[in-house]
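Database export, one record per block. Field names are fixed; values are copied verbatim from the stored entry.
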Amino acid sequence: MKKVFLVVIFALICGAISAQSGEKTGSLLWRISGNGLTQPSYVFGTHHAYPVSFLDSVAGLQQAFASSQQVVGEIVMTEMMAMGLEMQRAGMMPPDSTWQMLLSEYDFRFVDEQLTAFLGVGLQAIGVLRPFMVNMMWSVAFLQKKIPEMTPGEPMDSWFQQQATSRGIPVIGLESVMDQMDAFGTGSLRRQAADLVCGLRNIDHGEYVIRKLNRLYRTADLSGLFAMLREDSPCPTNVEWETAMNDARNKRWLEKLPAIIADKPSFIAVGAMHLPGEVGILVGLQRAGFTVEAVK
């Protein structure tokens, strides 16, 4: 459950900056300056499944957003709607594979029963989809049923981009929709199916993880969020998936961001889990020569 929807949950985040360790935590909003910039840019860690109303409680956010001349996101959200057919094709099970090939008879029946309970349909209806797509669908239904305060509304990422459009300023994506889909689909079909089975068998733990993530996000505990990736879990860590979803994407984004913020003062809104750690956006920008400071 730490690894879902991430288009959904994906996302997420107490203390102050430690002068000795260089650890960056205690804020969701960070100011980027120096290294030749004439005006600062800002990076904000979003939570893809948290109410937009939370933004009203973030100190300095409205001023930072208003001072920016372009908005940068993981993807351009309007492109996701335009590419619905391509996304659907990318999420389809290959013609030479079936769920019966991926799961034991016992696990197949279990997954089918659980999906029917949460979604109202089982594998007979959605078995044409790859396991990671089914996992995403189930995760959304799980949030609605178990954590109603996270009932899907307008994602923060979409809100920022819509506000940019209404202001008439550009919206830039750090990757394409299909790049993101490829990252979500990392790993073999068998491993994707195993991750789904484990999540369904450990629903109580999944609920605990999400509630803890929400608490850490509300308190801007970036260090705590990063540490959760290393916590013991009943489901084996999918290192390949985590690397593709976080580390590899951070690296590609950091290759683009210096030129983007040099062009115009920017408001960068990406999932909060991309901010902390040695391979995170904050440390990466600092290593590139920029001054990165918490806005409190």
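Remark 1: The radius of gyration is 19 Å.
Remark 2: Confidence is low (pLDDT under 50) at residues 1-21.
End of record.
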